[in-house]
Amino acid sequence: MKVPKTVFILKVLAALVALTSASANCDPAFGNDFVSVSTESDDCALEVIGKIESVATVALNAATSGVFGQLSTASAAVQQGVKCGQKFFTVVDDIVAYAEGLKTNFPNGTEEQIISLLNNSDIVVKDLPTAVCVCLGLNVPTDYLNLASDVVSVVNKVLIQVVEQGSSLLSVDTFMTFVSAIGAGSSVESLAEDDTATLENLISKGKTCGTELQSIVTKVSQAVTDIKTADATSTPSAIRLAMSNTAIFLIEIPTVTNNCIQNITGNAYTVRDQIRKAIGVITDNLIDSSADDKGNALSTGDYILKVADMGLDVIAMFDPTGIAAMLEEFIQPICGPTAFIGEIDDGSLADALALVADGEAFADSYGTWTHTGDGTVLVTFESADTEDVTVEIHSAGETIASIDVASGETVTWNSTVSELQDKTMYLDRWRPGLLGLPGSGGGSLVLWVPQSSAGGHIELVVKINVS
């Protein structure tokens, strides 16, 4: 039985609640997990609890409005037709682009040779059969090397048409005719006029942020499937470790989420980070789903069916900025970016690296990030405090330095981007309090240190205030 889309959204939000509620003890960071959240305030758990009700409301509103809401309440036939058309279009678009690249690299290649090369690509081996199965109403393939004859027939017809017609297939009218002609379009043909218009509108947008994110989700589930096929006893922890250094996580997710916000101004960094957090939770769910509730590894077939039941294919039809807006009420501003941060353009630390001061101790701190630089992290502490203090610097939860800053003095501290990259940097302050005993209350400062293929450079001015 398929999980309703509204339930899925609430499950994602529940996962986020669990992740953030884990910070009730206010640990500086959660290491290098897919979602790293940093906070100091002892009230952080209460803030999360206070937001749960509004988040549920936002989720329900999102699930009952726009195209997403229309599809989630539509009949199974309508959902299949729209999903078929969009998923099929996205895959054909990828194959056309790949085929054109092959023709450029092999200008003298015959059609048969180009088709042979296409047949060796992941797009044709996995993505295309999956799209065809959606269109034909079949279960997602569990064995891509032994496909049903109906699926193989459609796959072969697609490749022939792609090589012969190329990008001309991608116009809306031509594509709709093409889907029917190759025998994959019965679910599309059965759509009512209004539903057909919805599909055509989605197709006319070409590749969207939603379809790109859907592709990432598909690749993650396929990667988990491949690992389980090689070793059926693989635990979620082992799978997570195996995937942590793959191109999907190090390159593709940062690239796709960067592309998602190219046309968004003003709050671009915020939207991007919110999208990454959402994808972080979803991918974590995909990995955790490789085992049952008792921790026993699922078979490859059971895992594929479990993922199919999640209804994740709807992401392609959901404007990710809508996902971001939905999560905005939930994800606390003091939560830093995720491990999917990738390469970041120049900007202020507040915009580019999510620099946030919680409380008064470090209020008005500021700085800059440059992608091209000498690889230095330069921190300048400027004290306006009436007491001598000690500032502790943490990286991914580990204390890496303790800096004594006398009242009214300026002190500097240096490190490197390469040492701190892909981790949260978190500062708290120890200051004499009641009876002269030192305490760490008053506030904290947090930012994300990204990687940079061009060295990078961070300059951070830490304001130490009376608090």
Topology, pairings included?
Elements: H1 5-21, H2 44-63, H3 66-73, H4 76-105, H5 111-118, H6 122-136, H7 149-165, H8 172-181, H9 186-189, H10 193-204, H11 209-230, H12 236-243, H13 247-260, H14 268-288, H15 300-309, H16 320-328, E1 347-348, H17 349-352, E2 356-359, E3 366-372, E4 376-383, E5 389-395, E6 398-405, E7 410-416, H18 417-420, E8 423-432, E9 438-439, E10 443-449, E11 455-464
Parallel strand pairs: 4-11
Antiparallel strand pairs: 1-3, 2-10, 3-11, 4-7, 5-6, 5-8, 8-9, 8-10
Helix pairs in contact: 1-2, 2-16, 4-5, 4-6, 4-7, 4-10, 5-7, 6-7, 11-13, 11-14, 11-15, 13-14, 14-16
Task: Write up this protein.
By secondary structure, the protein is an alpha+beta fold. It has 3 domains: 5-64 and 208-328, no CATH class; 71-204, no CATH class; 347-464, Immunoglobulin-like. Helices cover 50% and strands 15% of the residues. The protein is built from 18 helices and 11 strands. It has helices at residues 5-21, 44-63, 66-73, 76-105, 111-118, 122-136, 149-165, 172-181, 186-189, 193-204, 209-230, 236-243, 247-260, 268-288, 300-309, 320-328, 349-352, 417-420; strands spanning 347-348, 356-359, 366-372, 376-383, 389-395, 398-405, 410-416, 423-432, 438-439, 443-449, 455-464. The strands form 2 sheets. Strands 2, 5, 6, 8, 9 and 10 form a 6-stranded antiparallel β-sheet that branches. The chain has a 5-stranded mixed β-sheet with strand order 1-3-11-4-7. A hairpin with a 5-residue loop joins strand 8 (423-432) and strand 9 (438-439). Helix 4 (76-105) crosses helix 5 and helix 4 crosses helix 7 (149-165). The protein starts with a helix and ends with a strand. 41% of the residues are buried. Residues 1-24 form the signal peptide. Keywords: Signal.
